[in-house]
Amino acid sequence: MKLFYAYAREDAEVRTVLHKHLVSLRLSNLIDEWFDGRIEPGENWDSVIREHLEAADIILLLLSVEFLDSAYATGVEMRRALERQQEGRAHVIPIFVRPVHLRDHPLLRLQGLPRNGTPISQWSNEDQAYVSIAEALEDLVRDLKEAQARRATPLSLSGALLRIPRPTVVSYVRRQDAFGRDLVERLVDELSPERRQLVAIWGAGGVGKTTVAAEVVRELVNLFEGRIAWVSSDGRDDVTLDLVMEELASQLSYEAPRSSVARQDLATDIARFVSTWPALIVLDNFETIRPGEQKRCLDWLSAKARCPTLITSRENVVNARNTPLGAMRDLEAQQYLAGLVEQSQFSSVIASLGADEVIRISEANPLVLQWIVGQINLAQDPSEVVRELRQGEGDAAKRVFDRSFNLPQVGEDGRAVLMSASLFPASASRAGLTFVAGFGTEIARANTAISSLASLRLIDLADNASRLRIQGLTREHAQAKLLKRRDERAFHERFVEYFVTVCKAHDDPTAGNYDILEPEVENLRKAVSLACGLDAAEAVYSIAGAVATSASGALVVRGKWRAALEVNQTALDLARKSGDAHAIQFFAHNLGAIWSSQDQLERARTLLDESLAAAEANRSPYFAAATLFELANVEYKD
Known about the structure:
12 strands; alpha/beta; five-stranded parallel beta sheet; four-stranded parallel beta sheet; flat
């Protein structure tokens, strides 16, 4: 690791002593140090300094009043060091030499050394200060070396492919851009690792944005050696930058450095990780993210991450290379419909109805074409399908969906299943869908409805047909139907009840239970959200207590930190609102312990103090003791 010293001449002796204390790192070939004393006679000192500053992996800023008073130290070395830190290209570590005034200074956002913030000059034994610094730097260097080794190892290609939405019901039909160029070929070129571009495909629902994106990623998976993260916000109205970071960390097998000097906020750490060894990031259904969080994501992607990124959205994306995707061209639609017809039992009937007419009714939208062919397959009189769709109201998607939704073959059971599926942000198990639809445990009844919905292309089978999901445009129309139902609240109540039951049945800390709960993370967050709308605090407490405890909850054990924090925070807010002291002590303790594990020590301390006060008021010696232990751990870290 290349290490660069930035210091004032008055602190040359400090640099020399620190250099001596780093002898074990040099002997282990862990660091290659550089300072301005190595400039050769006749060299342009400014050019040489800048060259080594740009090449450094670790930059030490030896802070003293002389350093801050030096125009070159602050205006050139420190300024560029902080820029490279922001770009994720270097670790900048302030070394506190003597006391300085740094109120509101950007350096305060960085973890400095010595770790307790006491300048070297104020230690009674300065050797101990230097040893503390050397130990922390060794931890950092070893962490960075391990990270380099992990990045040099390709990720599983099969794992990356599993994250990509599976191919559609027909073979992919090549799409062209407005200039007649093959769209996949163009996007593959624009997303090459060396170009590090932010690219967006935007267009109406159902036109095939996700399908095109998936085809692009399949073309690139080998080039990126499996370093591909696919994050979809379909059905999720609470996606934040923090949750995106958590998903990226999980999919790219990122491990936070053990050294607190190396570890910053997750967004900065992930940015450094993906820019050092480029990964391909895909953000699907970006339009469903709230505007404020969209901006945070885009700021992170453009200013920090600097890696190839593909976004799909129904809206033009700011600061991206935008590629519009509209309805299929005539030839594309003809090929797509031909693929659907090949799988139809009434292929000759569809042909007799006229491909051009079917395409016109669908407005050349591939998803709507699937719906129409599904209706024709179920119809007693296929020509009646075309006649009725010609006369419907609204755009093609609404006309065709409404007719599918109201078909006798779908029935009340099918409508209940489809509206229930629209509540699941992730895929749904058959048992979950059955219960939320109001069928109790009658899975056979639900399966009959699912079969009709699948024939109409309204529901997709996932994970070897054990789980089910619906696409964005289908979800949008199904949710609109649910909103008009007088019994909408009953659907919400059953959704919450089902996941409370699941959590209670699998709250023992075993690997098997974690495997069952992990695919339900987004559904559990949805259940908590719905429970809040139902004023069902006990349901929130049950879910949080089962899956988000700081020691053994499935969300914590499986690294879903943001979800665990969110669920606990919701439970704590409800407890505070109702004045439930027992719930306050429990959830404030959970939150404090989780924040402590993330080195957010001030947050942890505040919450643990709240938990301790509640435990003492409740006369709960066990909780008081456990919380005192966590507080002691916080003090030790600090």
